[in-house]
Every structure is written in structure tokens, then in C-alpha cells.
Design a protein that fits this description.
The chain is globular. The chain contains 9 helices and 6 strands, in the order βββββαβαααααααα. The longest helix has 25 residues, at 83-107. 53% of the residues lie in helices and 8% in strands.
């Protein structure tokens, strides 16, 4: 049984998604892992691989989100209802097949890392950026021996090749679950540094999201709350929280 994907409705009026087609989601031990099944049939990812993980805790959480999906008035569900399954799919299929490409795409964030681009001058925003962002760059230096340059201009920063190589080497040592979590958290946070902090348990979800949305929060402190901005921050919070939860579950020993 393939993992469901979203069906886009071009009219913009009718609900978007697929109709729930199962009654019960369960976890079944298989070999060294745990397979998630719908009505006794294994869920299969887009490349036909069964949705099978080594952690029982993660498998239970995957089954729970499938059991909850589509439990609404219209009976529709979409990938947004299955965030853990999406990360699991990346761990199981994308990372093994495209590992080098994933590493290179993540490394590219070092050149545009949010923490490295600062407000010019000595205004309040520049001061708060130094206060909140410098400790993360110091953590990176202590954890990996990596120094990243910062800039108060708009031109792209060319980071030291030695630093980039150290970051690549550090990520190359990560397992598929950790890389899948980075692949979600780094784009959401706009920062490879903050993504690595998440994987290392160096900061809570709230701390990391607060750092990633510093500029927006400072803007609203001056001009008042903006629904578009608060919605965006809430979306980042959900993505990073899902990634953190996935990693915690994946690291839970099988029982």
C-alpha cells in the first residue's frame, strides 16, 4: 500500500487531500524492525519500500498519526497530517539513495546561514543579534572546531574552506535519521548551525525557533503583531518540533 500523497484541487474551493481508505493502523514486528500497516497491509513509500523502522516507539507514533489522519468531517487527509511519516520516508529512501546530494545541499546553508548576516550599525537589532546569535557560533566553534565569518552587508559571505570541510565531515558521520531531521530543520530554521544544535541536543525547540525568528519578533515589537508573521513562526515551530520528536523516537531503543 503506497503512502498517500496530496491531490491538488485546481478550483480552490473544494477540500484538498485524499479520502481516508482504512479503518485501523497497526504495528507489526518484522525481522529487526517494525512495519506500519493499514488494515493488515504494509504501507509502502513512493519507491515501494515498506514503512519499517527499527524503533518500536517511532513505529507506534507513525501508526498513531495514520490512525488520526482523515478523522474529520470530510474524511480527507494530506501529507501535512503525516509529518513523522514524511521524515521517515526521507530516512528510509531519500538519504540512502541521495546521501551525497543531501550533504551538499545542507552544506550550502553554511554560506547563507541566518546567524552570519547581521544588521549594520549599533542599533538595537544589531545588539540583540550579537547577544542571541554569537553564543550559537561559539557553540559551533567548541563542538566542531568550526569558525564562521559574519557580515553586516548584503553581499554573500565566502566561508573558509577549512570550516566547510569540517562541517561536511561532521555531517557525513550522521546516521540516516539525523540527516533526515537536518533536512527538515535546517531549511525551516534557515540555519545549518541551529539545525546541528537540534541534532546535538544543544538547545530546545523553543530556543532554536526564537533565534531563527529574532528579526521577525523584533519587527513586531516595533510595529505590532502581524498575522502573516505569526503564522509563519507557528509553521516553523511545528516543523522543528516534529523533527525533534522524530529524532527522540528514532533514538529510543527497540523493545
Amino acid at each position: 500500500m503506497k503512502m498517500a500523497s496530496t491531490e491538488h484541487n485546481v478550483s480552490g474551493n473544494a477540500p484538498v487531500g485524499r479520502k481516508r481508505f482504512w479503518k485501523q493502523a497497526d504495528v507489526v514486528p518484522e525481522g529487526q524492525g517494525f512495519v506500519v500497516q493499514l488494515d493488515g497491509r504494509s504501507i509502502r513509500l513512493p519507491r515501494k519500500t515498506p514503512l519499517c523502522v527499527s524503533s518500536r516507539a517511532l513505529a507506534d507514533a507513525l501508526a498513531a498519526e495514520w490512525q488520526a489522519a482523515g478523522q474529520n468531517a470530510d474524511g480527507l487527509f494530506s501529507p501535512a497530517d503525516l509529518p513523522l511519516t514524511g521524515i521517515a520516508g526521507s530516512m528510509i529512501e531519500r538519504i540512502p539513495a541521495e546521501r551525497e546530494g543531501v550533504l551538499r545541499s545542507l552544506l550550502a546553508y553554511a554560506g547563507s546561514d541566518l546567524l552570519c548576516y547581521r544588521e549594520p550599525g549599533e542599533g538595537k537589532l544589531a545588539q540583540v543579534q550579537r547577544k542571541e546569535w554569537d553564543p550559537w557560533l561559539e557553540w559551533l566553534r567548541k563542538q566542531y572546531g568550526v569558525t564562521l565569518h559574519t557580515s553586516s552587508g548584503v553581499m554573500p559571505i565566502v566561508q573558509p574552506e577549512e570550516s566547510l570541510q569540517k562541517l561536511y565531515d561532521a555531517m557525513e558521520k550522521l546516521n540516516a535519521a539525523e540527516l533526515a531531521v537536518l533536512a527538515v530543520s535546517v531549511p525551516a530554521l534557515g540555519s545549518l548551525v541551529l539545525g546541528l544544535a537540534l541534532v546535538n541536543g544543544a538547545g530546545s525547540v523553543d530556543e532554536l525557533v526564537a533565534s531563527a525568528t529574532l528579526d521577525e519578533r523584533m519587527q513586531m515589537a516595533v510595529w505590532g503583531e502581524d498575522t502573516e508573521i505569526t503564522d509563519r513562526i507557528a509553521g516553523i515551530q511545528r516543523e522543528v518540533a516534529d523533527a525533534a520528536r522524530f529524532l527522540q523516537l528514532a533514538r529510543t531503543p527497540a523493545v
